[in-house]
Amino acid sequence: MAGSLIGGLLNAGFSASTITVAEPDETRRQALSDQYNINASADNTAALNAEIIILAVKPQLLKTVCQQFENSKINNSLFISIAAGVKSTDINRWLGGDQAIVRCMPNTPALLQCGASGLFANEFVSDDQRQQADKIMQAVGIVVWVDTDEQLNAVTAVSGSGPAYFFLMMEAMQQAGEKLGLTAEVTQQLVLQTALGAARMATESDFSPAELRQKVTSRGGTTEQAILSFQSANYFQIVFDALQAANDRSITLADELGSE
């Protein structure tokens, strides 16, 4: 995710000279430096003078990284955390308190600069810092802001984990197409292009997904039979239960990580 964010920032017009990466792994550090022509350091405290510090580490490592900053002089920086599940209150505590923190929940299409990120700003974030965070995350896709830290659990359930739901649907359609007699290659082409086309129609149309579905569902037709089959299996409840499970797990992980 850090690499995709760097690439997105450069594509958006940010200068490579303004970006410094702190990466302890020498191979990875050198690869990032060579690929993006950016500054690279093995020491996290090299970022202390930065106006904006992006915490792009595994959630389990975030406390250790934050405490490295806590033991040094922080220069009124804005901290943007893309570590999943760690609450801003815990990040603030680990940094020593009274720090400007924006929590971000991106998703994997950010790798293609086609992501969706939910953001939350704590009470120490200024309007200018909020705009800066917005601009940075827009480099890899769309940005939405939520009012509470807790709402990022729902963002995680909807968009953070969301790509996997669509991949699962594609996987199921792939298997069904093959069982109906199509080759794997033909089925895959049809499924992937259909998914792409449906997503483009939904994003580029003035109609809601429900309205688009109704427009392609003729009474007595093949599509109606498929939709009726979904509905008889309580499809909407299945989807809600899945997102509720993801939301609940996000809450549990946040509590576990914050208690350390």
Name the features.
260 residues; alpha/beta; Rossmann fold; ProC C-terminal domain-like fold; 2 domains; five-stranded mixed beta sheet; two-stranded parallel sheet; elongated
- What would you give as the CATH superfamily of the largest domain? NAD(P)-binding Rossmann-like Domain
Radius of gyration: 22 Å
Overall 3D shape:
elongated
CATH topology of the largest domain: Rossmann fold
- Mind telling me the CATH class of the largest domain? Alpha Beta
**CATH architecture designation of the largest domain:** 3-Layer(aba) Sandwich
Oligomeric state, counting identical vs distinct chains:
single chain
Kindly state the percentage of residues in helix.
Answer: 55-70%
Written as H for each helix and E for each strand, in order along the chain, the element string is: HEHEEHEHEEHEHHHHHH
Structural class by helix and strand composition: alpha/beta
> Average pLDDT, to the nearest integer?
92
- Number-wise, the strands total 7
- Let me know the largest β-sheet: 5 strands, mixed
Number of helices: 11
With strands numbered from the N-terminus, the spatial order across the biggest sheet is: 3-4-5-6-7
Distance between the termini: 24 Å
Estimate nothing, just give the exact number of structural domains.
2
Strand content: 5-15%
